Amino acid sequence: MNIKVLHSWLLEYLDTKATPPQIQQYISLCGPSVESVEKIQNDWLYDIEITSNRIDTVSVVGIAREISTILNRFEIPALFKKPILLEPSSPNNILPFTIKDNGKLTKRLMAIVMDNITVSKSPDFITKRLEAAGIRSLSNIVDITNYVMLEIGHPTHVFDYDRIKTNTFILRHANKGEKITTLDKKTHDLYETDIIIDDGTGRIIDFPGIMGTANSVVTDKTKRIVFFIESNNPQAIRRSSMKHGIRTMAASINEKNPHPALVQDALFRGIELYQTYAKAEIASPVYDLYPNPLTSKKISIDIPFIHKKIGVPMDKKQIISILTDLQFEVKTKQDNLEITIPTFRYFDMYEKEDIIEEIARIYGYHNIPGQLPPLAYIQQPKDIEQIFNYQNVIKTYLKHQTWYETMNYSAYSKLLLSAFDLKETDHLHITNTISEDIKYLRVSIIPSLLKNIKENGGFSTDLKLFEIAKTYKPQKASLPEERFKLSLVTKGSFLSLKGLIEALLKELHVEKYSFTLSSHPFFSSTVQAHLLIENVVVGVLGKVKNSIMEHMQLTDSVFAAEFDFEKLIEKARLMPIYKPYNPYAAIQLDLTTPLNQSYAKIVQIAKESAPHITQITLKDTYKDNVTLHLIFSSPNRNYTEKEALIELEKIKNNILV
Amino acid sequence: MEIDVTNEKKKAIDFIVNSSSLSELIKTETELLGRNGLINSLLKQLKNIIPEKRKTVGININALKQEVITLINQKKQLLSQKIDDKNIDVTMPGTSIKTGTLHPITIAITEISSIFSKLGFIRMSYPEVEWEYLAFDTLNMPKTHPARDDFETTFVNGEPHPTYGKMILTPHTSSGQIREMWRLKKPPIRMINIGKCYRPNWDATHTPMFHQFEGLCVDTDINITHLKGALDYFAKEYFGENTQTRLRPHHFQFTEPSFEVDISCTMCQGTGILRQSRDSGTSQDDLKVKCKICKSGWLELGGTGMVHPNVLISGGIDPIKYSGWAFGFGIERVIMMKYGVDDIRNYYSGDMRFLSQF
């Protein structure tokens, strides 16, 4: 959360000649991050980020304290002026009230009644400071509650005494079915985990720590008030605030656990302001219910441990000086320090590492030298190494074959998956997605790629896209199976896609592969094939079927392929198996033959008919014929053309049979 | 017997002059200067000349040899010039070769992995669909802690686990820290986890899916100096050797101390000011404009810190014997800082006008 504080307010608790830009610079280096400092007329406004562990700095007093510690480290004199808070005088007459917290729902509860209230506009300085902080100025009696919260760092509340006829305040859990109408005129159905204040008749008069209620809030007719501050259970506050969506500054502070000692500081300060600016008269003793006062906390730490964790051999004197600057009490016994934590740091200092952070940040991170971590050999698991290595190899290869890499979101819409005849129930989905477009975790990359083709309508007729990404297959009683897929789409042709895949397999030096007709639901039943590597199905390619094309409103044919990435690279090699080349002459002949059976069958016949064939490649196709280029050779002599022609005849005959 | 050097010289010159191509000239060269060529055969015949005249004839033959060599070289040059093509327009584009492109995230991941692999860090990959327990509880963020607010979570409809809680899409690569600790069981640990993360935000600077890279270094005696050193090393390698880094205090539940790390602004070189020349000849008149992309010369890189002892304990590692540092940065962010690619939504739009640039 952020707070906005005027420099003039800060100077009530801080004596320094440092300029606001200087303060911004030094504080951000060693403490809370001052995101900006803006000149406003003859004042300055700080915008400071408060981290959830440093709720002690969410106030003007807290920030002033932090600034004085840090500036002094940079040898800029700065004095923290602790607020002087006096116990209020005894009341002249007493207005009664009763507070009950039998369930021990608060850690501390303080209250006081004040009479003779004069409701009016707040004095200028209060209005200015509140509005700079982003809080609306309403009337003096409301403003003082907020002013104290910003100054001291603990939320406070004020009731109209006369609107609570029973003068009773009972803290309890809400019951099922109860409702509350908060100050902003909204009504909420309460949960049993919510803590509320009941006036003894069952009537709810406050949502403590979160927001006041319409029925007990002060008005301009208010004459008598109950100034009421409770230290709430931070988890209960957070739960109630989040569940109801009421994110007031009070709730944001209370859920971060301000120390109960601040309750008294806030009460005394508020009383002083009511007396000065609302003509208030004390009408009760100070009520203080604090059954279990927090005792002081001590952390023990050794100097060698400090050196080890920070990596700088700071001398003992310097360490102690930093800790005392932070108002930590230090008792030394040789190399051991026993550190007493001040109340305002109670809830964020737990162990030795927290002390390390305090010492290191005040010493200055800029003063700590840097060195590289020592080298150590960790073996990367081979399967992971292979995946990353081949992802690079394949992506780079595809890039140079004029394909474009794309990355899509990991989920698609119901509309898209139904265009592909996929079932919602076969997918995991995001239950709180911010868009219906990204709801179902992908089981195939192809739908996203087709969406890319569609959306790039105007770009090119020869769009070639690929993506390597995970798909998510739901598994019973376990996280989904996440597997990388390589997917491609092109508007070219089946053979151009197949040719690219064959070239890729060559690049990977995969030798034993084959294609067989498949029956995958994404593709036309006659134009699709499985890729098998050593008889294991690795993926599929084909022409996207018409029904999908219609759903996607695409007209030009689209061809797609998808492979299980790990299976694809399983037989990949960096270098093929070396075959010593044949030093003897080879005979090269062409053979044109009708495609009276599948290409694979013809090649098989040729190989079986001619034992001296060492290579067969497709040279040309024309109508129903193919021209094969054949190479004949012998490993131990020069093969002759005469012999080759004899084998060629055999092949011709066997094909035509 | 006589050797008529003058006559031989005339014949040789004729041959050379009449060579109309380099290959003819080379033939002529062999015929005249080769092992069995004219000059050598003349030299062989010297023994048949009477001794008194041998010296003179020998000198003349060698003079002829030198002349032939010179003439051949001259002719070679002449012929080479003639073979040159007519003048071409060297500004005409060459035969075009098309290529596709890699996604900028892929390029960044390769660069980042390589930078850290030099330090011995291995790149790992961990689940994107994860249990709440590994994304929060083991990282010192119990359900009730307000710090959990900062990670608005993307929930998945898988069946919750009795111990590990609800199934989510991980909001950060930090869940990989615990998994790596469980995998290795014992330091040394040197991990870079690069992966997709998910948070329900969608605007010019946030996408519901983005990439992070997480560094984790655990060993005996790891301290703040090692963190500083590693961050400084990365910043200089990735952004340039003049890049400065600085740490500022911050708070994360899973590190103690926690920091935010800034680098000196790549735009204004860390000065906070951009100078725009006014063409007046001196830099004194330059317009000084506040650099728009940084905060007083610094750009925020990301979060980092010393691994919290509770996190080590969740990872099954003794926090007394071992310590470590960790960081997590957004990849889209570092690309933006280095190359100026701005609207983050471009990365996952599949728009060719974006992809084809790389």
From TrEMBL, chain A:
Domain B5, first and last residues per copy: 294-370
Enzyme Commission number(s): 6.1.1.20
Alphabetic keyword roster: Aminoacyl-tRNA synthetase, ATP-binding, Ligase, Magnesium, Metal-binding, Nucleotide-binding, Protein biosynthesis
Gene3D superfamilies from the UniProt entry: 3.30.56.10, Bira Bifunctional Protein, Domain 2, Phenylalanyl-trna Synthetase, Chain B, domain 3
Record field: catalytic activity: tRNA(Phe) + L-phenylalanine + ATP = L-phenylalanyl-tRNA(Phe) + AMP + diphosphate + H(+)
Cellular component terms per the entry's GO annotation: phenylalanine-tRNA ligase complex
Domain of life where this protein originates: Bacteria
Molecular functions (GO terms): ATP binding; magnesium ion binding; phenylalanine-tRNA ligase activity; RNA binding
Position of the signal peptide: none
Listed InterPro entries: aa-tRNA-synth_II/BPL/LPL, B3/B4_tRNA-bd, DNA-bd_dom_put_sf, Phe-tRNA-ligase_IIc_bsu, Phe-tRNA-ligase_IIc_bsu_bact, Phe-tRNA_synthase-like_B3/B4, PheRS_beta_core, tRNA_synthase_B5-dom
Pfam families in UniProt: B3_4, B5, tRNA_synthFbeta
Cofactor: Mg(2+)
Quaternary structure annotation from Swiss-Prot or TrEMBL: Tetramer of two alpha and two beta subunits.
NCBIfam families: pheT_bact
PANTHER family listed in its UniProt record: PHENYLALANINE--TRNA LIGASE BETA SUBUNIT, PHENYLALANYL-TRNA SYNTHETASE BETA CHAIN AND LEUCINE-RICH REPEAT-CONTAINING PROTEIN 47
Protein's name according to its UniProt entry: phenylalanine--tRNA ligase
Source organism per UniProt: Candidatus Roizmanbacteria bacterium CG_4_10_14_0_8_um_filter_33_9
From TrEMBL, chain B:
Organism: Candidatus Roizmanbacteria bacterium CG_4_10_14_0_8_um_filter_33_9
Enzyme class: ligase
Record-stated family: Belongs to the class-II aminoacyl-tRNA synthetase family. Phe-tRNA synthetase alpha subunit type 1 subfamily.
Positions of the Aminoacyl-transfer RNA synthetases class-II family profile domain: 112-337
Annotated compartments: Cytoplasm
Cofactors demanded by this protein: Mg(2+)
One CC-aspect GO term: cytoplasm
Cofactor note: Binds 2 magnesium ions per tetramer.
Protein's recorded name: Phenylalanine--tRNA ligase alpha subunit
Alphabetized CDD domains for the sequence: PheRS_alpha_core (cd00496)
EC number: 6.1.1.20
